[in-house]
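User: Please predict the structure of the protein below. I'd like the answer in structure-token form so I can feed it into my own downstream comparison script.

Assistant: Understood. Taking the following sequence of 62 residues as input:
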Amino acid sequence: MKGTKRDGEKVKAQSTAAVRATISFPPDVYESLKSVATGNKVSGVGGARRGGEVHRRAVALA
């Protein structure tokens, strides 16, 4: 987004806000996610995020 002028002074452009979410997993799914994340040296959140990105791309290609 470009900055606009307000009262003669330049205003810094605002960035798009991120959306926060809370995800709950059944215990067996959580343990699987945790072991995969540890094996890939990422956090559980990083693994869930990556899984969501992969799923979104797969759905978009279908």
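That's the full token string. Residues 24-62 form one domain.
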